Amino acid sequence: MTRDEVTAAILEAKLAKGLKWADLATAVGHSKEWVTAGLLGQMTFTQADAEKLGALLELPAAAVAQLQVVPYKGSLPSAVPTDPLVYRFYELISIYGTTFKALIHEEFGDGIMSAIDFSMDLQREPDPKGDRVRIVMSGKFLPYKTY
Predict the structure, then answer these.
(1) Under 8 Å between Cβ of 59 and 6
(2) Catalytic entry in 91, 94, 119, 138
(3) How far is CA 5 from the centre of its chain?
(4) Which residue in 5, 75, 88, 94 is the catalytic one?
């Protein structure tokens, strides 16, 4: 089974069982953001977590095994995303990326925000003019070293 086939099987089982991403995250005891990323092919599950998810979703053994393989991360189908929601994040980085960079460098120095030592929280934020999406990202600062 390829990783894309595993993702398709996960999406099919999730829909058939009426599960939410948060339900799957609760089953393994991790955040809904991390588990969703993993089930969509961007993270590696432990054997125990892969087996729990496999049982819950009734996945074949090959899919459970594939959930434990280190994935090729950041693999979008095109350089510029075509899905409108994903494109808005691309647009956000296109517009505010240099601002993030300037402010992080001013506050922390020359380095990067880790996407490895990282957490994210996504919540609905009620607003009388229409609900908002609130995303809080926290990544460890990693300074460039001099050698």
Answers:
(1) yes
(2) 91
(3) 18
(4) 88
Instruction: Tell me the two tokens of residue 128.
Output: 């009388």
- The pLDDT tens digits of the residues spanning 1-19 come to 999 999 999 999 999 999 9
- Cα–Cα distance measured from residue 36 to residue 120, given in angstroms and rounded to the nearest whole number: 12
Handedness of CA 118, 124, 126, 131 (dihedral sign): positive
Q: What is the DSSP string of 18-44?
A: T--HHHHHHHHTS-HHHHHHHHTTSS-
Domain count, the chain: 3
Residue 55 inside a domain? The answer is yes
Q: Is 124 a catalytic residue?
A: no
- Global pTM reads 0.84
* 101-133 per-position pLDDT tens digit: 999 999 999 999 999 999 999 999 999 999 999
Catalytically annotated residue among 114, 119, 134, 138: 114
Residue appearing with tokens 């595993």 = 6
Q: Which domain holds residue 115?
A: 110-147
Active site residue 114: yes
Q: Which residues contact 75 (CB under 8 A, 6 or more apart)?
A: 41
